[in-house]
Amino acid sequence: xxxLPFNRAARAGGEQRNIDAAIEHGHLAxxxxxxxxxxxxxxxxxxxxxxxxxxxxAALEMAAILGGIGPGDEVIMPxxxxxxxxxxxxxxxxxxxxxxxxxxxxxxxxEAAERAITKRTKAIVPVHYAGVGCAMAEICExxxxxxxxxxxxxxxxLLASVDGQPLGTSGVLGALSFHETKNVTCGEGGALIVxxxxxxxxxxxxxxxxxxxxxxxRGQTDKYTWxxxxxxxxxxxxxxxxxxxxxxxxxxxxxxxxxxxxEYHAAFADLEASNALRRPxxxxxxxxxxxMYYLLxxxxxxxxxxxxxxxERGIGAVFHYIPLHSSPAGLRYGRVKGVLPxxxxxxxxxxxxxxxxxxxxxxxxxxxxxxxxxxxxxSGVVAL
Length: 384
Prior knowledge:
The chain has 384 residues and is α/β, with parallel strands linked by helices. The protein contains 15 helices and 13 strands.
């Protein structure tokens, strides 16, 4: 039986043509025509200017610098997230403060974030899990009342929104990912969303190794020099060439992902009704982008058994994050506010199913059939 991987990056069709054009043009470093095209596309869809960077990690690191975050500062974030969310601030000397997640969405628990605020808190970093938006109105209201920044980790959030606002555009800064596993990809890549226009000039400088090179190429200065801290954060023109083709097909790719997500969701409704598992919850205020489809099993043994069962039948299914607060680096560099029962419980029960645009109907049906064949046993109550 053919192997069905957990993820396979889709090809939009114009990637090779764009790469050949970039090579022919002779501009392979950052900020050529394809970088400009991608930046314009994103700015139009998001309503905020963006800077293409080599990864979402780079975008978060830039956000930390722009936010003035350094030694002695604390940054509140969910423990259930990727390591880059914390690393970006740890590398600047700050302490990540890990809080629990909401059991319905697996996004940051706003009340837990509020309890974690101290006089050292500099920022709150909501992470939009699975392309489902956090409660941004509440988070921004809390941040304003306590005079802290909101920096959105919207790595999984392109073309998703909450209350009609694109993910990544509610806070002062936002970060997107174009990693191979994301809905739109160039292998490795990201973007910094700059929602505060006063930060844009410095953001360009930080991205260009601390120089005013961007102003030089716009003819705003007759030479460029080192003026601030920074690093080599820009995306290459080859990466932007690949990404441009993907962005031009983004709506099509998202529609196909949503169709697969909906098919999974309908297929497992009866299992949820019998308390055999729990499906994802998307609040009314959220328009999601079908970044992933996950199931919450009743316990860790059931989750591991389902992953093993699917793997033996050639289907790649995986769990997700190991909570950061219990990781070796999390214990060393961060701290925990209170207990995190939802994070600790749900991280042991979650399994992600294959979801990529080129999955055909027969392959989706095969995944559904094999999940149901595992004979998930109902329990009393799935939710915490």
